[in-house]
Design brief:
Its EC number is 1.1.1.399, 1.1.1.95. This protein has about 400 residues and is of the alpha/beta class. It folds into 3 domains: about 110 residues, NAD(P)-binding Rossmann-like Domain (Rossmann fold, 3-Layer(aba) Sandwich), CATH 3.40.50.720; about 190 residues, NAD(P)-binding Rossmann-like Domain (Rossmann fold, 3-Layer(aba) Sandwich); about 70 residues, 2-Layer Sandwich (Alpha-Beta Plaits), CATH 3.30.70.260. It is built from 14 helices and 16 strands. The strands form 3 sheets. It has a 7-stranded parallel sheet with strand order 8-7-6-9-10-11-12, with helices on both faces. Strands 2-1-3-4-5 form a 5-stranded parallel sheet. Helix 11 links the parallel strand 10 and strand 11. It is elongated, with a radius of gyration of 27 Å. It binds nicotinamide-adenine-dinucleotide and 3-phosphoglyceric acid (3PG). Nicotinamide-adenine-dinucleotide binds next to helix 5 and helix 7.
């Protein structure tokens, strides 16, 4: 089995994949356009931020599993993968601490002018007067949008700095907020109005696109900080640019819309040269600790897939099949039994949506559970049970 790696993974992970007996095509320089021509003979593709588009999926006949070695999966066309029966999985939480650490770094940098301090020092300029105008963080309020893995790690670190925390998240309950010792807000707007610092930690998807709108940004206090280490698409970047250009807000960003696809080289951004903006190179996840943790997780997903046929962190599984009926067939474990059951269902024009077959100790008998899109008639059930040398029992269970 062949695995293609289209981003940089630690050597240890490459070795572990080889030890699993895989043919490893380690090609970290591959870009979206390279992948778009397809992977002719790879069954598994591992990426970090490299885009896996529909063309890649349509032109990769053997591809069966795509792993995002990281958290955000907006670089993968999941809809196209689902249409071709390709598993998509990610490695959630493994880089959350690293991103939280960077988030605090951006906040401290903006408050204490750390990048400008260093850059002036290196240029031989001493400027204690200008750089003694920091406000300090203690006792201020940070607003957290999205209390997932990263949001929660940011909360702990912010509390360590003596910041008060107010948060909004779609699934944040009062009990959870009490446990985290934070204030729970009813809306993003409410968080923005109360915050000296607003930090966003949402996944990027159709519902969160532009969720940090012009109105949200304009309801931040004068001089407030806006921090984004999630994805550029969650914020109205035009509005953000206006707010930082006119000097009303400060921004700490690890993600922005014209982020280069290449790893090293010249580039231009409208955010360059603004003193109230601190931008890093999408390095939230790029500590050794996080990269090792993510890579270990990716290897473990591959291991589970090739050894047990199971995909951990499987993202594109249909959670709710409409199958109203479940057929449980206990049967003798020999060739053709399930095929005969399926044939009876096919004759009755009944579709089997999900199927699981498990085998008992002694390897004589097995149990097959099949989710059906329609109710089989008595006649179909009788036909299945008639093969007494194959079927022990067939029971129809309505799924509620
Ligand atoms: N800068 C980096 O290097 C870096 C590293 C890791 C993750 N990230 C980004 O940060 C994001 C969050 O990562 P995480 O590990 O905390 O993920 P997570 O899955 O634990 O949290 C995601 C959060 O987004 C919220 N969310 C998702 N869909 C939503 C919707 N439709 N409406 C409202 N809320 C929604 C969830 O409720 C949750 O609070 C990732 O998706 C990724 O884009 C960036
Ligand atoms: O979603 C993520 O995990 C991050 O954005 C990390 O991106 P990277 O793997 O390209 O560093």
């Amino acid at each position: 089995m062949k695995v293609t790696i289209a981003d940089k993974l630690p050597e240890e992970a490459i070795d572990q994949l080889k030890q699993l007996g895989l043919d490893v095509d380690n090609n970290p320089g591959l870009k979206e356009k390279d992948l778009a021509s397809g992977l002719k003979d790879s069954q598994i593709l591992i990426v970090r931020s490299t885009v896996v588009n529909k063309e890649c999926i349509d032109h990769s006949p053997k591809l069966s599993l795509i792993i995002r070695a990281g958290a955000g999966v907006n670089n993968i066309d999941i809809e196209a993968a689902s249409g071709k029966g390709i598993y998509v999985a990610n490695c959630p939480g493994k880089n959350a601490i690293a991103v939280a650490e960077l988030t605090l770094g951006l906040i401290l940098s903006l408050d204490r002018f750390i990048p400008q301090n260093v850059s002036d020092f290196n240029a031989g300029k001493w400027n204690k007067a200008a750089y003694s105008k920091a406000d300090g963080l203690y006792g201020k309020t940070i607003g957290i949008i999205g209390t997932g893995m990263i949001g929660q790690e940011v909360i702990k670190r912010a509390q360590g700095f003596g910041l008060n925390v107010i948060a909004w998240s779609r699934s944040l309950t009062s009990e959870m907020a009490d446990e985290m010792e934070i204030e729970r807000a009813g809306s993003i707007q409410e968080v923005a109005e109360a915050s000296d610092i607003l930090s966003v930690h949402l996944a990027m998807n159709a519902q969160t696109k532009g969720i940090i709108s012009k109105e949200i940004l304009s309801s931040l206090k004068d001089g407030a900080m806006f921090i984004n280490t999630s994805r550029d698409g969650v914020v109205d970047e035009e509005a953000l640019y206006d707010e930082v250009k006119n000097g009303r807000l400060k921004a700490g960003l690890d993600v922005f819309s014209d982020e280069p696809e290449f790893k090293e080289g010249e580039f231009e951004s409208r955010f360059q040269g603004l003193d109230n903006v601190c931008i890093t190179h999408h390095i939230g996840a790029s500590t050794n600790q996080a990269q090792m943790a993510v890579a270990d997780d990716a290897v473990d997903i591959v291991r589970g897939y090739i050894k047990e046929g199971k995909v951990r962190n499987w993202l594109n599984r249909c959670e709710h099949t409409e199958s109203p009926w479940q057929l449980v067939v206990r049967h003798y474990d020999k060739p053709g039994v399930i095929a005969n059951v399926m044939n009876e269902l096919k004759e009755a024009n009944i579709n089997a949506q999900e199927l699981e077959n498990v085998i008992f100790d002694r390897k004589l008998a097995a149990c097959c559970t099949i989710q059906l899109d329609a109710e089989p008639s008595e006649k179909v059930l009788n036909n299945i049970c008639t093969r007494q040398d194959e079927v022990i029992s067939a029971t129809l269970v309505p799924r509620s």
